[in-house]
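Changelog excerpt

This revision adds worked examples to the README so contributors can see how folded entries look when concatenated. The first example is reproduced verbatim below.
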Amino acid sequence: MKAIERGHYSTAVRALRKPAELGDQHARNNLGYLYEYGLGVNRNPEEAFKWYRLAAEGGLPAAQYNLATLYLQGRGTPTDTQAAFHWYEAAAKAGYADAEYMLGECYRTGAGTKRDGALALSWYLKAARNGSSAAQLMAASIYYTGEGSRRELPKAMVWAELARLNGEAQAVGLTVQISRDLNEAQKALAVEKAKLCKDSKYQDCPE
């Protein structure tokens, strides 16, 4: 919404309220955002929760992600990791990259579900191929350590290099660590594959 983009938050609140009350899911999500962060209104996590929930139940993936985060952090509602998992999963299945990453986190840590390293990696990879640099870093870390998966250093190097190219500061040190266990040919190939993956907009990337 242009008023939000321009920082005219009070105007945005007035403009969003009517369509939100009439069932516009994007308006509901945006109004929830303004209440969550106190933009143009007093900060009110309970009101943010109300609007996010309405939009989430209306099927909007961004709102499902926002609602899940409030459940996970216990803001505006009591902490409920199972509810958080449910809404992250809904948004992730709709292809929402941040939710795909968080679903990987849920499976890795056991938040709201049973710990499952293989499923954690699969969701990190979905988010990584959806452009999430944080997920690229996590995929690299898992392939490097073998947590919940087998250790695969060439794949670790590809995803670490992608995370580095996309600005993840921690990826710089990780690429150095991984490179110590690879020969020069393996390192060069991994860097080449990372470039190919990025240039293909994540269509040609390692699993």
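The second example, added in the same revision:
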Amino acid sequence: MKYLKVKDFFNKIAKFYDIMMNEVDYKEWAFYIEEIIKKFSRGNKILDLACGTGNIIEFLKNKNYEIFGLDLSFNMLKLAKRKDIKNLVNGTFFKLPFKDNSFDVVLSTFDSLNNVENLDDLKVVFNEVYRVLKNGGLWTFDLNTIFVFINYWNNYFKIDDLKDLIVIWKSKFIIPNSCLLKIYIFEKIDEDIYKKYDGELLEFSFSLEDVKNALKEVNFKEIKIYEHLSFRKGHEKNYRVQFVAIK
């Protein structure tokens, strides 16, 4: 099953994840999420779906929020726990292990929803989020666009020479709406001796209108699409967009 491959991928690379992603400005990202929360919600109980190693939660945990994190990868959650992050749950966003009307805000970051294979599965996630949100609750998530798959990630190749770690990134656009990412990791064990790890992940994207309609079918309202890290109107030629929807 495709989603077991996602779990296996992140379990395999978990111990390298924060080193590999060291160029990501999580502080800026968390600030943006908090601006969205302030703009669209007055609640303080938050669920971070696919929270990974807890990089967003880490910046929000000392604010006036009660935050829960859920991730498919147990190994990623173990690393989040080392950051003194509480309320971590190992599970899938297709069947959330929470009661109805539990949260004021549900969020998901770093294109985690691009791991969902089709619109029917995306609606399953939306239904679960709708169920655990309180009335008037906020659902916000980002997505990579098909535009970025074609114009940036297609035939992409990069080598990161990090401390005691070499990471090779390769990706390719696959018609009509997916992108295959392959990662090769070489961990330095001793002088001139490296241990190799590798994995691949398939991401999917959808037209913004299809995602908006899927949210509407689940009865979300006040749906907005922004260019990521801004409140400018989002469009298909953005690399990444941010969705906001209210229960």
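Reviewer comment on example two: The mean pLDDT is 95. The chain has two domains: 2-144+206-246, 148-203.
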